[in-house]
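Posting for a labmate who doesn't have an account.
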Amino acid sequence: MPSLSVFTDVPLAQKLEGSLLKTYKQDDHPNKMFLAYSVCMTKEGQPWVSSMVRNIRLQIAQDPSLNYEYMPVMGMNSFIQASLSLLFGKNSQVIMENRVGGVHTVGDSGAFQLGAQFLKTWCRDSQIVYIISSQKESYGLIFQDLGFSVYEYSFWDSTKLCLDPSMLLDVVEQAPRGCVFVMGNVTNCKLSQSQWIKLMSTMKSKRIFPFFDIPCQGLSTGDLEEETRFLKYFVSRGFEFFCSQSLSKIFGIYDEGVGILVVVALSNELLLCVLSQLMNYARALWLSPPSMGARIITSILCNPALQGEWKQSLEGVVDNIMLIKEKVKEKLRLLGTPGSWDHITEQKGPHSYLGLSSQQVEYLVKKRHIYIPRNGRINFTCINACNIDYITQSINEAVLFTKDSEK
């Protein structure tokens, strides 16, 4: 007789967005398309990889001096320093004063796992977390699992079809004193300098702790420095903060997920104390971070010629994204699709909202076999010369169909 399983009461987890890809793969329709990949795609429909990555990966694999020993718990120091220089600028105030450091982390969410563990133990008065981003972020689950009370908001206004910076200001006003305030994709929320000043003043007066997410620096505008300029505002105002810096997407090494948990403190002494505690958590979580992705990125960032070539390739991706969005908007205009489609080109980065209703999204999935998330936020690099006509015609059909059904 079989014994009773200890897993008897374990239910199936709630379906995540990954089930959309599973449904797409099971679809045998010849014109099926998937527009929700998380990676940047090329015009040929393959994941984009920065041009010099393959050669550097090969060079590292053939380097006889590497012994593949465990990495230090803190991670690769040269990788951390190169990443911090990319984030703040080589000669930035906070680097010169030795008030910023980092821990080499695993994947896109490792920095949040590490940071949340620290905050849970050492900031006992900050057990409420407010998260605001352009979409629902997976790291909300990390904070929830650790026992934080989590409140999530989006600054995408589905009625006005825009990323509304006033939403960010409103949420900060609502946030309680001493909470942790996570800001994701804040680069795309176009705050003016006066709005940043107002935001920081409110956070300062409420002693709110900022935790930033920088998932793909440079992919919104191609301007690496401009996209992280707001961090310098917080540094100059005397803030301490955490920042999750993910680097895999901007180099096209998606299978080598690496990043940094960045720590900014008021002094070097305080910084060293925080980093020492973070190392204890990192030792328990993963002991030794992955090295290949970090070696590739460091090789590029520490070589001026390779860094220049990489920046050009990144700018090429951004230019292609902008061109795709312009073409989609123009084709919808020529088709006479009802409504304004300016919001497509007003959003920055590869992932942007189409501004479709749930009924229109359902039409695209079920009738046209175009698989997109329920919120209508797609990856525009999935659109190319071979599929753009089918996609725009299908969007036009979906909009017209719902207009007719409303009559």
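Reply:
Got it, the structure tokens are right above this. The chain is about 45% helix and 15% strand.
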